[in-house]
Amino acid sequence: MIDKPISEASTPVGWPTPTPVGEIQIKEYPSARAAVAKVTGQSSEQNALFRRLFAHIKDNDIPMTAPVEMTYLVQYGDGNVPALDRQSMAFYYQDQTVGRLGAAGDVEVVDVPGVTVVSIGLKGSYSEANFQEAYVKLLRWLDEHSREYAVAGKVRVLTYNSPFVPFWMKYAEVQIPIDKVSPQP
Asked: Could you give the CA distance from residue 51 to residue 37 in angstroms, rounded to a whole number?
């Protein structure tokens, strides 16, 4: 059983190691530079977003890193079941000295602030159903720890493998940004 990603590229400088499959961890990420492709309504498909990011790093000779990040809004439908609505995809640079900030064709290069997350590692297909199942597990964990942590941002999924890795070997992390809750007197 593979409990961590197959290493196809290095992670950005200072990033923590991936969360083991099925485990839930609190993690700290440093600030980082990223090229972001946002959903435009006509190209929300994952492959279209990835192609825009890949063209950007290829055209600008930016070294490949892993993971790729997807952010989601949560929508609640029938039976109060959460559905994930993809908002963007981002490619992280090796460090904040690479590239230039600002609009760059179909993407925008931004400096992303450091973040604390609750994370769960998962293995298998990069399907919305797998991400949604992991998200629900994180929500249960947050409910059990609601006196300690509160949600502080959009759900994000970090995917570590290329299309060349078989689906059963793919590794991802589903994460929710969090803040510590101040103790009540």
From this structure: 10
For residue 16, which amino acid is it?
Answer: P
State the burial class of residue 140 (Cβ atoms within 10 Å of its Cβ: 0-12, 13-18, 19+).
exposed
The whole-number pLDDT of residue 3 equals 66
pTM score: 0.88
Beta bridge partners of 88: 38, 71
pLDDT at position 38? 86
What class has domain 24-180? alpha beta
User: Which residue ranges make up each domain of the chain?
Assistant: 24-180
Q: Give phi and psi for 127, each to the nearest 5.
A: -95, 150
Strands annotated E in the chain: 24-29, 32-38, 68-76, 82-92, 102-104, 107-112, 115-123, 149-151, 155-159, 171-180
Rounded to the nearest integer, the mean pLDDT of the chain is: 87
- Per DSSP bridges, beta strands 107-112 and 155-159 are unpaired
Better-predicted residue by pLDDT, 44 or 80: 80
Q: How far apart are CA 144 and CA 149, in angstroms?
A: 10
Confidence of residue 1 (pLDDT cuts 50, 70, 90): very low
